Amino acid sequence: MSWLAKKRIMVTGGAGFLGKYVVRKLEERGGQEIFAPRSKDYNLVEMEAVKRLYRDTHPDVVIHLAARVGGIGVTKEKPGEFFYENLMMGVQMMEQGRLSGIEKFVAVGTVCAYPKDIPIPFREEDLWNGYPEETNAPYGIAKKMTLVQAQAYRQQYGFNAIYLLPVNLYGPGDNFDPATSHVIPALIKKCLDAKEGGQKEIIVWGTGRPTREYLYVEDAAESILLAAEKYNEPDPINLGSGFEISIRDLVDLITRLTGFRGEVVWDTSKPDGQSRRLFDNSKAERAFGFRATTGFEEGLRKTIEWYRDQRAKGLLR
Question: Which position among 21, 42, 54, 139 bears the catalytic label?
Answer without folding.
Answer: 139
